[in-house]
Design a protein that fits this description.
Blueprint lengths: L16 H7 L4 H15 L5 E6 L2 E6 L2 E8 L4 E5 L20 E5 L7 H27 L1
Antiparallel strand pairs: 1-2, 2-3, 3-4, 4-5
Length: 140
């Protein structure tokens, strides 16, 4: 596992009502698309928590953020807090930041759903390992 800084957020809960309200706001077509991918994050495991961070839905394991979604004018970003170190055989990830990467998803455009599902699961597994390593280091 590569060394990166851990991005932690306090206050994440299971099924946050603010997150659920966010998906009901305009633009509805894009929020519906964002909801689909956030549901994929939620379904990774029973330990996935959520909150609104910087105004958009963010998925965490405990306090460790691993993914988010956001709706823009013509596309949805599916973001990954440790995206720079994730294996991405389909080449979906975009961005040049030190850690964060995203996948742009647009209605009506072809997208490899299976590859994005696998990327979300990879991000979850990676974050879970980082959380365990942090917890073990704290216990030592």
């Amino acid at each position: 596992m590569n060394e990166t800084r851990l991005f932690t957020l306090g206050g994440a809960v299971r099924n946050d009502s603010k997150v659920n309200r966010w998906f009901g706001e305009p633009p509805s077509e894009l929020r519906t698309l964002a909801h689909k991918w956030f549901e994929q994050m939620r379904s990774c495991g029973p330990d996935v928590l959520e909150l609104l961070h910087d105004g958009h839905p963010t998925a965490c394991i405990g306090d460790l953020a691993f993914g988010d979604v956001n709706a823009f004018r013509s596309h949805v970003n599916v973001g990954f807090f440790f995206g720079s170190v994730l294996k991405d055989p389909a080449g979906l990830l975009e961005g040049t930041g030190r850690f964060m990467r995203h996948v742009k998803v647009s209605p009506g455009l072809p997208q490899s759903e299976k590859a994005l599902q696998e990327l979300i699961l990879t991000a979850y597994v990676d974050a879970k390992a980082r959380q365990a390593a942090r917890d073990n280091a704290g216990a030592a």
